[in-house]
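Give me structure tokens for this 480-residue protein.
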Amino acid sequence: MNALIRRFFGVESLVKREHRIGPLPDDRSAYQDVSRIALPAVAEMVLVSLISSADTIMVGSLGKNAIAGVSLPTQPRMIMLAVFFALNVGVTAIVARRKGEGRQDAANATLRNAIMLALALSVIIMVAVVALAEPLMRLAGGNTRTPDDAIVLRDAITYFKIMAYGLPVTTISMCINAAMRGVGNTKLTMRVNVISNLVNIFFNYLLIGGKFGFPRLEVAGAAIASVIGLTVGMVLSIMAVTSGKDSYLHLARHDDWRPHWESLRGIVKVGGNAMVEQLSMRFGFFIYSRIIYGMGVAMFAAHNISMQLLGLTFNFADGLAVAGTSLVGQNMGADRSDLSMLYGKITQRLALVFSLVIAAFVALLRYPLAALFISEGTSDAALVIGTAAQTLLVVAFMQPAQMSAVVLSGCLRGAGDNLYVASRMMISVSVLRPALSWLAVNVFHFGLPLTWLLGLSEIFVRLYFFYTRFESGKWKLKQV
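Here you go.
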């Protein structure tokens, strides 16, 4: 048994001798390298997800309509943010590569140019989406067919507009944090995001229900609290790169803030491929969400409770993927593709262990977890809780495939192989998931759990693509 474990987890068995360029670290050092970056990133994302879930729980005290009202804008908002998610994929990958090359000035130039680009784009997009808030919510499935639907649409428009006004603040913080992850400073991003979200929760308490003399703003209060938290996060992020000159990444007023075309080309090259991925992925999620909304407000509320917990499990994988992206990118910059392969495989092993533990936790506690998100005395609460609990069995079943696919895609992004990731995500999320979900709802007339099972089966296709690509080693030839 020990020999089998050592063969699966041991460094010597993870990189074939013919692929080695130099000496490999010992088992302890290799896993410590991954843990140093992964654990703060996992802690950050899981804590942020837990706080976000607390946000939904606080809104859920208002009932299913409020849950649906803050959930309906999710996919339009993610489409709005897709440009910046893609930009930040490029920032992380390029900053990691520049650090591996020993080019600190180039890493800082990348950050400066990314901030300027993000700020300009965010203002343009903010103006556009605020003007189009109602059409976008109707496109997402909002309507006025029933009194409940009318309430959901009204709340969704309000929530979406307020969050859109905070877009420039959000993008600056995202950009700085992406660069910090590229150099492996995940402890800083953890502190920034946890503090930001705790501020959000504090103002949620004050503004949703109207406490200590603050007005009772309900859904609007949740949005305002989020923007306040995001603003705190931006301030902390800026302070991190301006106050301490001992930081690898540092910004100052006297720096050269003129456009640096080499840096911008690198961001656009890597981020452009990621843009294809992000837009196609968000389009797929948008259509998927619209299909589910067609099942009714109660089913949509149950769907979004399940999405909260799916997102929590996803964040474990995403934290490990940050380590994969950073270490693969840094070692590619240092011409040690063998170490990139090693650290990619270590993150895969850790993802498998995490996924099995999480799957057991979600399956065993599915009913109490679902009940956290909606007050039992509100309309259709028992139906929402029961349906969400059944759907969480699908979440548990998907964990090993989901986490492995996320980690492998992060490793490929670190190597700059974004076009491959983007094209496969387009096939899986933009085509297969909506098509399978449409069949489940409109042809087979499945309930929510079986709709999730059929729709999310595309994850296995995605895992096959990313696993075979990583094992092939073709990503070693990518230049950024």
